[in-house]
Amino acid sequence: MRIALDTNILAYAEGLGDKARCTKARALIERLPVESVVLPAQTLGELFRVLTAKAKRKPALARAAILGWADSFEVADSSWTAFQSALDLSADHQLQIWDALILAVAAGNRCRMLLSEDFQDGFTWSGVTVVNPFASPEHPLLASLGGV
């Protein structure tokens, strides 16, 4: 199963946020099969902004973190087709355009799940189900990964 990660999951893994979420995000990412993880490029751009603006990291350190994520997992580019889908998602489901773009890129890259706490848990579009890994009870798709 292909799994996309949203910016908030990466930000927690970088240590931004409460200790419980940071610990859970790191443990989750470590247990995901590397070959199954997709990072929409949009998430890396947003993470750079979060690391430099909110965490006050120097741009060179933020860049190093972003490149480290890109070295670890497949990065999926945004396309005009994905952007058109994002426009539809925004108009039809009242999603923020950049969140919609992440979902559209996940769908375009055959992801089955998008791990995020920024969407409605369980929202499914074009074969991608949004799963909040911090929600309780655990979503069945996440549980199906076994021990994550």
Structural write-up:
The structure is a single chain. The protein has 148 residues and is α/β, with parallel strands linked by helices. The protein has one domain (3-143): 3-Layer(aba) Sandwich (Rossmann fold). 53% of the residues lie in helices and 13% in strands. The chain is built from seven helices and six strands; from the N terminus they run βααβααβααβββα. The chain has a six-stranded mixed sheet, sandwiched between helices. Helix 1 crosses helix 3 (41-54), helix 3 (41-54) runs antiparallel to helix 4 (59-72) and helix 5 (80-93) packs across helix 6. The radius of gyration is 14 Å and the shape is globular.
Fold blueprint:
Elements: E1 3-5, H1 7-13, H2 19-31, E2 37-40, H3 41-54, H4 59-72, E3 74-76, H5 80-93, H6 97-108, E4 113-115, E5 124-125, E6 128-131, H7 140-143
Parallel strand pairs: 1-2, 1-4, 2-3, 4-6
Antiparallel strand pairs: 5-6
